[in-house]
Write a structure and sequence with these properties.
Layout (H helix, E strand, L loop, with lengths): L7 E4 L7 H10 L1 H6 L2 E2 L11 H7 L3 H7 L5 H12 L5 E5 L10 H10 L5 E7 L2 H15 L6 H8 L4 H12 L4 E5 L10 H8 L20 H11 L5 H17 L11 H10 L1 H11 L24 H15 L1 H14 L7
Parallel strand pairs: 1-3, 1-4, 2-3, 4-5
Helix pairs in contact: 3-5, 9-14, 11-15, 12-15, 15-16
C-alpha cells in the first residue's frame, strides 16, 4: 500500500498485463499527474516507458547494440537522478523491463542508489500462468520470428514462478514495500488497468484523459498461423515492423483473428500443476490469503467454426488486407511465398 514515506513508485510489469496501455496513459497525462503530486520523468524513456533506464540498471549487451544506446550506463542513470532531484513530487517510473533484472549484490546496490529501499513502493501485476502463456506466445510470434508450437514455446522460453520472482524483489526492498495485484479484467477496478492503477496510487480519475486506444491487441486464429509461416522466411526488420502494425489492425477489425491458440488438456494441466505451489505461497505472503485468487478458466479445445476455417482461404483474405494497407508488403510476400510455401500440415 502506498504510504506517506514512499517518495518513489516503481511499476515493474509484468509483461502482458496492460503495461503499454498504462504507460501511454501515464505519458499522455504527465502534466496532470504533476498536479496530483506525481512526476513521470523524461530521462530513461523509450517511447512512453522507462525501458532505457531499466536496461541501464540491468545491461544486456546484444539489446544495447540493437537499440544504439549510450555505451556508459552511468551517464543515463546520472541524467535520470539529476532530473528527479529537482522535483518535489513523488517519482513515478514504469517499465516491464525491470522484471528482467537478475539480482545479485552489486546490482541490488546499484538499484538502491536510484530507488532507496525505505522510500520505494514496487507495484506489480501478475496474471494467471496459462492465460499469461497464451498472451506471451502470440506476442512472440507476432513481434519476432518465433516458429515454435505453443507446447515448444512453453518448454523452452516460458517461466512464471511468481513467488521466487517476488522473493528477489522483497529481499531488495522489503516485503512491506511490494504491492502485488492480479491482472484479470474481472478483478480490476472498473475492469480497467488504468482505473485500477490510479486506485493503487490513491488517485481519482477526475481530469485525466482516459480515452486512449487499447494497445497491442493480440493476434490469433489463422492470422497467428499465417505469421508463423512467415516467420520461417527471412523478412528484413523494416518489413517486419510494418507488417506488425498491419496485422495488428486486421486483428482489431476481425474477431476471428483474435481467437486465442487452442490448448491441449495435457498442456493446461501441466502448466497449472507446475505453478500450483508457487501460487499458494504468493497468495499467502503477498495477499494474506489462504485461497487461490486466480480465475482458472478452461482453455482446452472447443468447437468453433471460425477456428476451422480453411487456412488457404484466410490467407487470401489476409494478403488482400495487407495489400490495401501497403502494396509493397504484398509484393515482398509474393516473392517469399513463391520460395517456400504453404501447407498447413507444417503445423
Amino acid at each position: 500500500m502506498l504510504g506517506s514515506h514512499h517518495k518513489y513508485v516503481l511499476h515493474i510489469g509484468r509483461h502482458k498485463s496492460g503495461t503499454t496501455s498504462l504507460q501511454r496513459f501515464l505519458f499522455a497525462n504527465r502534466n496532470k499527474l504533476i498536479d496530483k503530486g506525481f512526476y513521470y520523468p523524461l530521462s530513461g524513456l523509450r517511447g512512453c516507458a522507462h525501458h532505457n533506464l531499466a536496461l541501464a540498471l540491468n545491461p544486456k549487451g546484444s539489446i544495447r547494440k540493437q537499440l544504439k544506446l549510450e555505451a556508459d550506463d552511468d551517464v543515463l542513470i546520472q541524467r535520470f537522478i539529476d532530473e528527479i532531484s529537482q522535483r518535489d513530487e513523488r517519482i513515478l517510473v514504469s517499465s516491464e523491463g525491470f522484471q528482467n533484472i537478475n539480482f545479485n549484490r552489486n546490482l541490488a546496490a546499484k538499484l538502491s542508489k536510484v530507488f532507496p529501499k525505505e522510500q520505494t513502493l514496487i507495484i506489480i501485476y501478475i496474471r494467471e500462468q496459462l492465460d499469461y502463456l497464451l498472451s506471451s506466445y502470440t506476442q512472440a510470434v507476432h513481434a519476432r520470428n518465433v516458429t515454435l508450437s505453443l507446447e515448444e514455446f512453453e518448454e523452452e522460453h516460458f517461466s512464471a514462478d511468481y513467488y521466487q520472482f517476488l522473493q528477489d524483489w522483497s529481499a531488495a526492498f522489503g516485503v512491506e514495500n511490494i504491492s502485488v495485484h492480479i491482472y484479470d479484467r474481472q478483478k480490476l477496478k472498473n475492469q480497467n488497468i488504468i482505473d485500477d492503477f490510479l486506485d493503487v496510487l490513491t488517485l481519482d480519475q477526475v481530469n485525466f484523459n482516459t480515452s486512449l486506444q487499447n494497445a497491442n491487441p493480440s493476434i490469433g486464429g489463422n492470422l497467428l498461423n499465417f505469421k508463423r509461416l512467415l516467420n520461417q522466411m527471412d523478412f528484413n526488420p523494416k518489413n517486419s515492423r510494418k507488417l506488425y502494425h498491419v496485422l495488428e489492425k486486421l486483428a482489431e477489425e476481425h474477431e476471428k483473428y483474435r481467437h486465442k491458440p487452442q490448448v491441449s488438456q495435457e498442456l493446461e494441466t501441466r502448466v497449472r500443476q507446475k505453478y500450483r505451489l508457487s501460487n499458494q505461497q504468493t497468495f499467502k505472503t503477498y495477499f494474506k490469503s489462504q485461497e487461490d485468487l486466480f480465475n482458472y478458466k478452461s482453455c482446452t479445445y472447443q468447437a468453433n467454426p471460425d477456428l476451422n476455417t480453411d487456412l488457404n482461404q484466410d490467407i487470401e483474405e489476409i494478403i488482400d488486407f495487407i495489400g490495401q494497407k501497403d502494396i509493397s508488403l504484398v509484393q515482398t510476400l509474393a516473392i517469399e511465398f513463391a520460395k517456400k510455401f504453404t501447407d498447413k500440415k507444417n503445423f
